[in-house]
Fold these 2 entries.
Entry 1:
Amino acid sequence: MIQTEELTKHFKDVKAVQGLTLTVRPGELVALLGPNGAGKSTTLRMLTTLIPPTSGTARVAGFDVVARQRDVRLRIGYIGQGNGAGHSQRGRDELISQGRAYGLRVGQARRRAAELIDSLGLGEVADRTVATLSGGQRRRLDIAMGLIHEPGLLFLDEPSTGLDPQNRANLQEHILALRERHGTTIVLTTHYLDEADSMAERVIVVDHGRIIADDTPAALKATHVGDSIRLGFDHETDVAAAAARLRFPRVRRDGLTLEIGVPGAPRLVPDLLEDLRAAGTAAASVEVTRPTLDDVFLRLTGRSLREGGAVAGTRSDELVEA
Amino acid sequence: MSNLVTDTGVVFSRELRPMLRNPVTVVFSMVQPLVFLGLFAPLLPDDLSLQWFVPGIVVMSCLFGTSMTGSNLLFEIQTGSHQRMLVTPLRRPALLLGRALKEIVPVLAQAALIVGLCLPGSFELHLAGALVGLAILATFCLGLGALSYTLALAAKHREWLFWTVQQTLLFPLLLLAGMLLPIANGPGWLRALSRWNPLTYVVDAERALFNGEIWTSTTAAGVLAAAGVGAAGLLVGTRAMKNSD
């Protein structure tokens, strides 16, 4: 669906994208993850024909993005960071105009607009001026506009930025449902870690205009960080005895706790606890820590992806009752 | 099948729709011309009639409304809906042509309104001449609209730049065209400057035509000036749109 070869974009002194080589197969759901300014949006703008690459090539939906712009545009949907609908327009009018722009006849465009208004829950606001809609409503209208011609390939640039958690969840549901129903290939950019984690089957981590990792979220985490089990004990003697008993390559002692780095930690915990209890050195508490994509990013770049990019190593914790 | 004409039609009708939904907006951009008509026309010296003044106000209304129209595009560049149009398969020239052609509609509506307001007075309507005059005006505003959009595309996110250029050019063009008072009474340097202003020829032609004088060299000069502005506007405008991202 997408093939790029050394795709590069320089703006004056800024090397926004540096030699991106990438293949996306039909039906994939790919997230480009990276901090602000990593080159995610610039990449999307090149792939959607909005800006020409400085060098390198890209074929999107079978056509070159420079030589065959119109063919590419006909086959892709793009939902940018801004609002697609003009603020002085009405939502339904904009949907019909969009349909016409993609070559639908008036009747078809009307029907398609009505379908999308219905499926995105815009019935009550579709005939109001766009300027009077809430942020979440406008975003849903953006999605509807991007889908008017039922594209086989959909690009979303930071689709959920500025939405409250409920609207974000709604949006993610819509995107996943779309894919389920039509097998749409989806490429989205995000700096929300949980979004990339929960939605994408493939995460491409981008930093300083380069791809620094490309895999499933699970594989990225397993390869670059891995799970860990933290056992807490009440007595010094128990810690020492347990440490001696545990046969794991990576065990670290820190006061009354033992930290074990091991893949597939959640499945190991029950037996591990039973074993320790049987040996008379029962753990007082247990915590299984699974890495987040932020941990992956931190490991790869030494920086955190979270807002501000501070160096930090927070992990999402999963408590398991002992 | 889509082509440049149908693409232009899509853009044209999209641009026109908010106005059709809310026709009162036609009046908003013509407040100033109406103020001049109401408060300046009574101050005119005796030798200048309403017959002389009204065509100038019709052109002024076109000048005010159309030169500002780029601000709509500027706003859409900022909100993201211009980008939305750019990712559609619509042909780039259509994105400009459709917008510029739409400018003709409010200009004609405003002209009709001004003439309607003046008919009860001493203003006399010569229909054939007026229609030719409006055709010239439509050509002129097509080019002016395209130039205003070009300015918006060049200014992009610098809104101040758009308004500074638009406001700086507006009044010199207006005054040098003899829209409010005749240039003939002015000093030589001012008359010389006026001859370089294409708007002068448009205003002169409108005056002659609204007076029923059709087959004159003044008309020919007006046609040439309007066609020149129209062609220049569309040329730079389509080029700017092609490079827009």
Note: Residues 308-322 of chain A have pLDDT under 50 and may be disordered.
Entry 2:
Amino acid sequence: MADDREAILSRVRAALTPLPERAAMPDYDTEIAVMRKLLANRDLVSVFAERIKLVNGEALTDPAELARRFRAAGWLHGYCDPALWPRLQPHFGGDFQVETSFDRTRIDDYAFGITRAAGAVAETGTIVLKDASTSSRLGALAPWAHVAVLHRAEIVGDLPHAIDLFGDDRNIVWCTGPSKTADIEGILIEGVHGPGVQFALVLD
Amino acid sequence: MRFQQIDQFASHLKADTRASVYQSTKMTHEKRTKMLFDQFADPNRLRTIAGEIKQHAIENLDTYLPAVEAKLKANGAQVHWAADAEAACQKVLELMRARGATRMVKAKSMVSEEIELAEFLGRHGIEAVETDLGEFIIQIDHDHPSHIVRPIIHKNRREVAVSFEKNGLGAYDDAPEVITRRARQFLRHKYLQADVGLTGANFVSAESGRIVLVTNEGNSRFCLAANKVHIALIGIEKIVPRDRDLALLLNLLARSGTAQQLTVYTEFISGPKSPAQPDGPEEMHVIFLDNGRTEVLATECRDILRCIRCGACLNVCPVYRQASGHAYRSVYPGPVGAVLSPLLMGDRFAEKADLPKASSLCGACQEVCPVNIPIPDMLLRLRDKAKREHVSSPGTPPMGAWSLLASQPTAWRAALIGGRLINHIPTKMLPVPALRAWEQKRTLPEWRGGEFRKWLAQRRKGKSP
């Protein structure tokens, strides 16, 4: 493999050295692909709520409303980040069975997973998950419904700003709506491997 | 007349398949175009800049590759290099054996198709399960993908339902929702049982060492949530200079590929999991693959290495729409494949030298390309290369008579007038076999030879506008 490294790099150099000049990096505004009209003079929370709806997700602001939705759907058993549960528990009734550690041997038992998001992107309706703030990757992925909990102030306008906030986290995931496929005859089906239902719970 | 190989394939295509391919490519292309022009004032400028970024990156790989390697190592990942398909397959096998691993789950990766990794591992007693729904269906059918982004664009739901039944995934039901739920149930247990998760990468940032994975299904995320070892198999051309360049490229990739503003799961991974995270890889291995890429880099066709595998050129191509992906006999079909596939053959270029000829040079592929690759120019370069290397071209009509006529003005004039006879000859009696074959599928326009010369002569006399 060490040989392969040298072989590849020397072939790269041999291919590039004869070039009279190398293509220059274009000097461009990295916000060039931002849909500014969409964001102009708008509150980021309402743009986010509107955009996540376009990708079949939903933004809620009231934990009690979330509990009502779950009950109506018959989703009473789920996983919740242990750091979030004390704040959410009062809104959920005693009919809910919520675990604060995710057991991978019972992956199909969880109807919902509630985890902390690091933020969101208004322009695209995207939820940002970072490894450091996600209590369980599986808890945020395997259950049918995923709730990403975030604060209003954590919503940024567009992708370049979300990239600026990468920091040094080694695993960042942008989730834009529920998991989906159109592999079979181009027909949209949600909930392929990940959640079929995606909520963002936006708190003050 | 013998046809070119791609024509032969296309002429045997089932009507069903042709219709599936035609309809889905046309729909995706139209949605893509509407979206780009509705949302951006000048989408052409975006793709021109994206092309410049990628061109800069590939022309500076000698700096960027060692930079990425250093970043990845600093982030706790291990970096390996593979000169060819064999070396890459061996490296994966070696990593698995060293860990006593026997089961792999795979996210979609064109590079792994290119090196036929799953088949290789299978021969060595390792189960490598494709987790992308389309790729999973391809795998259980022992078929090949026919599109870069939509691997089963050539299949309909009935065919899928039949293979699910045959493979013990449930009684025949062709509702796409039922098929998807069955795959979900089957594959989530595969993720949990596996030892290693393998992914490709859509981009790698030289600035941070982050690899970017783009999926809609969430399968690559699942591979990296359920497994302790992550292997990323990446072509050396995937580099972009900075994290911030990803904003433009991701915006263009999703819109060009599937007419989405952004794909559902966009992952940025620069190392093993964080210490506090209970799920995910404790080890991350990156294998950088050459497999012919440095040879392409040394040619005038190096611009093809900008490709971000969105599939837009396949969707718009009149040849791809009629012939479907398998006609290209390559992992990379369509216009990009007609350039890349013969080039990646190296010394065996001649075997695929016919592909660049399967184009009308209409230029639509370059017009839609999110990184503005001059595909038509490259098709011409490769035709020229084939000619210079005396590659025989079976099925191509001989052009000797044509070149004789075209180089002798008197003969040309006579032919223009004589050609009018064609208007009066029944199709079956046309004197040239190539013309007869052509006429079977199309209507020959009326011969109007000499009209232009007549017009020009009039104009010179000042009698015509």
Note: The CA atoms of residues 66 and 206 of chain B lie 9 Å apart.
